[in-house]
Amino acid sequence: MPEQSRLVVKKLTPTIGAEISGADLTQPLESAVVREIEEILFDNQVVFFRNQPMTLEQQIRFGKYFGDLYIHPAAGKTTTPIGEGRPKPYASALEDHPEVIKIYADEKSVQAAGEEWHSDVMSEDKPPMGSILRIDELPSVGGDTLFASMYAAYEALSEPMKRFLEPFTAVQDGMKTYGVKSAFDNSRQYPRSEHPIVRTHPVTGRQSLFLSSAFTTRIVQLSPSESDALLKFLFDHVKNSLFQCRFRWEKDSVAFWDNRCTLHQAQWDYFPHRRVGYRVQIIGDKPFYRSGQ
Ligand code: SIN
Q1: Ligand 1 centre from 265 Cα, in Å?
Q2: Is residue 291 assigned to a domain?
Q3: Backbone angles phi, psi at 120, to 5 degrees
Q4: Angle at the Cα of 106 (from 101 to 111), degrees rounded to 5?
Q5: Looking at ligand 1, which atom is closest to the CA of residue 143?
Q6: In the annotation, is 248 catalytic?
Q7: Which residue lies with its CA nearest to atom 4 of ligand 1?
Q8: pLDDT of residue 90
Q9: What's residue 2's pLDDT?
Q10: CATH code: domain of residue 43
Q11: What pLDDT is attached to residue 1?
């Protein structure tokens, strides 16, 4: 007889987000528990855990239950300023753990990580499938993160609009995020890829919108003015609050989101206070579109 689950799931909204209790991520997890967390993630697109004082090694171990870990293209490139006037880095890979990105903002920051709606490194040929962030230090109020369901964004479109968008691909350009006005080294090249804007989730088979104002520069099959107009509409559309949940962090809260069907946006409303977190990402696959018909 299958063992009864100890996980308790509390949904944040009917559309996206669920808090999971009953798991201790500082300890090794049984494979049945890992599979259960994965199922809850697929159902809710982002899951949250409270009171998980994981060491970096424990966070790495937790991430590896879901796949190999991803090394961010800016890893190791943000700590040595090149030239004058580079803003203080808001995210950098740890020297001894290059798969861990430290997210940081304080009174000297001029930017914070993830202020614009995005899916992580969606400009990669194979963008990371998921990200796991633990917040270590946070202001007494503020610093929440918003998550948006791109399934819901797709499903809210009219049938003619869905059919219109399905053949399109778009350029996702890492330089738009990391190369301009950024704390990252803008003398380097960051990944640029062409991906379908309607993306089929490889596990759930559901369709979602795969674009963001942080990375998407143009729709390949359209003229520049047509592409600009359609992207403007879509960038507005994905921000509808009906598709969102908002997570209020506490010390040692953990969020695990599926980058294949969500966007997220960090709220930098706590300046000049400090917020520090550690993030690992799991390698993903090449986005594809498969007709549901
Ligand atoms: C990010 O991964 O974009 C940062 C999210 C956050 O700091 O809440």
Answers
A1: 7
A2: no
A3: -65, 130
A4: 70
A5: 8
A6: no
A7: 114
A8: 80
A9: 47
A10: 3.60.130.10
A11: 41
